[in-house]
Amino acid sequence: MDIYDKMHRSLGPIGDWKEQAEGYYVFPKLEGELANRMTFKGKEIVCWSINNYLGLANHPEVRKIDEEASRDWGLAYPMGARMMSGNTEQHEILEQQLAEFIGKEKVMLVNFGYQGMASGVAALVDRKDVIVYDSESHACIIDGVWMHPGQSYKFNHNDMESLEKNLQRAVKMTEKSGGGILVISEGVFGMRGDQGKLREIVAMKEKYPFRLLVDDAHGFGTLGETGAGAGEEQGVMDEIDVYFSTFAKSMASIGAFFGGDEVMIDYLRYNMRSQMFAKSLPMPYVVGNIKRLEMLRTMPEFKNKLWENVNALQSQLKEAGFEIGETNSCVTPVYLEGDVPEAMGLVHDLRENHGIFCSIVVYPVIPKGMIILRLIPTASHNQQDIDDTITAFKAVKDKLYSGGYKVAVPAE
What we know:
Largest sheet: 7 strands, mixed
Order of helices and strands: HHHEEEHHEHEHEHEHEHEEHHHHEHEEEH
CATH architecture of the largest domain: 3-Layer(aba) Sandwich
Shape: globular
CATH topology of the largest domain: Aspartate Aminotransferase, domain 2
Distance between the termini: 35 Å
């Protein structure tokens, strides 16, 4: 059998909707400056689908430094892997400043968030070690677990009783193998918006021997007094052994980093294959991220405005009768009931008739019969955006539950 045969039979549970969905529901093209209002299919829309949390993407100072760095260095510099020929003073400056900001001994830059997490997990553990991870971990964590040649156990989402049971299993396994235990959670879970129970997980260290890895992609820059993330927010930053975040959200850039004790970071530097054998992060991103970090640290008005918008959006959604779950972060999910065609009809209505663009989450990402409209508020949004969105959501919710979207999926 040709391996292509399965592709002709099915493009997968999402890909099978390609004819109806591509270019509109998936792979849409948002145009214009990255902002609260953008253009989609020639129409202005309120955009709730980009992770530009602090609104830095088009800040004049950010645009200026990006332009200057691109002109001065180009995208090619430095050439080669960092270990061999791609290290620079600027890379080390950014690492030092990040380490100081999050309160860790040392930081290591990596090129991408997804790739960085997956390969970081694979580097940290060997066949004797056991991974214990939250069931709703991001796909990059799951891929890292899949690459692990040893045992792994999944605990129910944010369920400390389930975590403890799996830690007990892990202890028994490592007593035989002679390995260690790595627990993985997230600072903020990107679908539900709830923070990982880091304080409770850390408390388990009194009973069980493990190291804690936290993916804080959505918490870095948005949570904590200084913006250092969910660990700072919950008062347990010192107890996070391996801290990870990406620049793709609050920093509106490219790249990511690991932070922790010097020995752990040095181990990653010399053993993390995706960085050892990959080109170094290009200089414009490094220089641009130094500037972004400076603004994140010294200009709290961005985070303050973000939370003003988050609190307004979430409180108005609740007042209007919408279910937003247990989010205690910026991520704002709106839970509805319906099938995939209804979800597509609802989103089409939102975009075409109400000028609202937000991400839609359906089966197989979540169970059948459920729809999540996922909103990402930023410092760039304003009260008018929120008011327009609440009005639109009320209208489409009424239409959904009265059967108004039980028709053919609108095609584009």
